[in-house]
Structure of Glycosyltransferase:
Amino acid sequence: MANVAPLISVVFTSYNHERYLKQAVDSLIGQTFKDFELIIIDDCSTDNSRTILQSYAQHPNVKLNLLEKNTGSYVKSSHLGALKATGKYILFAQCDDFSESEQLAVLAEKALQFPSAGVIFSKSRLIDQDGKNLGDDYQIRNMSFKKRCKSDTLLQGQEMRSFLSYACVIPNLSAALINRDLYFKSGGLPEKFSMAADWALWLALSELTDFFYVSEVLNNFRQHAATIRSKTKLDKQLSEILNVFTEHSLKFRLNKTQQNAMMVGFGSIWFNYFLEDPRNAKASIIDFYKKASVEHKHLLYYLMKGAFKKTGFIIENLSNTK
């Protein structure tokens, strides 16, 4: 008798995070929903990760892949796992995050209940390196997103594109269930990007499908001290986001109004980075502008317009918290 494909393929990528590995894997093994395969891709870890992962090799849901050569990025290892997936849906789990026990059950229920939504994503709890609760990602969203997504909500693709033009409102891959066919139809995670590949994926999917937001916290997204932006990292991240937005506009033939909206959104993102870390943002913007303005003649205009837009968001948020 042929094996029946599971409903969900969880693609779990691992690289040198032995401290968090057992908690991450156990949170998936312990899901109340059982119709899933767990495809583990260890990207040639040099710590004790492989030994830890081998202890799960005999679990009936686990398909363990220990790579002998490092791929060079989580994007490549994630996509490799996707190619091995057999489920109707894919969830990309990362080795330093962990799931609530009901995550797959809730996401699967919504996916079946709202078939027009090719992506189901939830609110994420932010935690530090020691597991301390830092709040959730909903708290830092613009008021327009908060008003629209104060409860479980079906979002049309164009509406999701608009939200994604101002922030990556799905902050990590571990928070979302994706229709596997649509993942590949969208082009998947683009390997050319190392810092904004997920953002590019969500934007591409917004042109193909609706999204469904679950207002319940189902995922724990770990924040590391190492993620604090340096000048070099900020330059690279801004360049990638700008390239993602530009290439998306061209690939999907957005009209002038839609292109302008994305560029204003980019200006708002830059200004948000400036507010978070003025010293690094100020130091990087000159170098970034010199490079980017060669191809983007009106970049300064969009940075300024985006800054005014972000200021408006901040005022609106403050007004609604009084």
